[in-house]
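Q: My labmate handed me this sequence with no annotations at all. I'd like to see what the chain might look like in three dimensions before we decide whether it's worth expressing. Could you predict it?
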Amino acid sequence: RTFDTVICGGAAAGSSLAYFLAKARGVPNPSILVIEKDTTYKHAATALCAASFRMQFSTPENIRMSLFGADFFKHVTEHLSVDGATVDLNIHEHGYLFLGAKTNIAGLKNLRENHETQTREGGKAVLLSQAQLRDKYPWMNVDDVELASLGLENEGWLDAYSLLQAFKHKAQSLGVEYARDKVVGIDMAGDRVGTVVLQSGERIGLTNFVNTAGTSADTIAHMGGFSVPVRPRRRCIFVFRSSKELPDFPMLIDTSGVYVRPDGPPGQYLTGISPDEANDANVSEDDFEVSHELFTDLIWPALAERVPMFESLKVTSSWAGHYAFNTVDHNAIIGKHPTIPNWFMANGCSGHGLMHSPAVGRALSELIGTGKYRTIDLSRFAFDRLAAGKHIIEKNVI
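A: Here is what I predict for the chain of 398 residues:
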């Protein structure tokens, strides 16, 4: 078989791209094949993430992608409905609250500068003083906090698996084909990708190839004769119950790096933390072991200090997922390969993949279909920035 576009990886980014490409082509058979090795998505980063979205970044392009994504999520039925069915993502639009410690002078400077950038890009957030925090969140200990930034709209959390399935089902309704298989080889035809070889033995001809393989991105890249600095990094998430529901609880980003937000029924919360660089090792793609010491040694003490009511709580569940982590500058690698003209990629989203999936899918569809970006210019995220040392430094990392 031969397709115009073959997409390797059918989670959020790959299925978003499939949808936008098929929509743009507007024909019953858009000639798009999505190859996904695990169509249950049991271990996909999309399915195992904290399922949150925010616009509070320091990089303008990240803010623009987030704003488009949030609007897409809030109007998802208009975009992804099949046969008139409602798409319910169970969206909770509550802001992120970033706390700035009195002693962290550089962090406070970043908080103010980031707020200026976000406002300039159309984001809506407010800076809160210690007194304002005490008044708004009387249940929170803010003795060590000088300033905080609260998102007023276009931030919150949703059902990530429902979003993934909605992208997939809509793409299929537009004629996109999905294959449960695994890419095990790539045959080049001169300087182009000519054929992909599947584990099933099938060989697929193509015009355009797209690598959206998540943590397997580098494995796929090697088949094309190059490497991308994307590795699996484990992230553990814990769900706990407290004695009662706290009012007006945001997605709280503590000065310690711990995050916590409501999850499910009243009094239930979801929490986690990204390990510091020294303890954030690459892991194998099948390593989903939960590091329970993260909760007992780091997360719980920080929670109890920030929210005294959390001194008494009970963990009810936990799991581990993976970031597809760009080890060079912790930002996505998006665009066209500089020397393989029909190789496109969206790799190493480093924890931003879900929230940016609508924007990334739309942008890549533009690049494939017209040869250039037409809405959000993501040229800065190109693969060749890495070799050129033009790293993108995102200051608002969680």
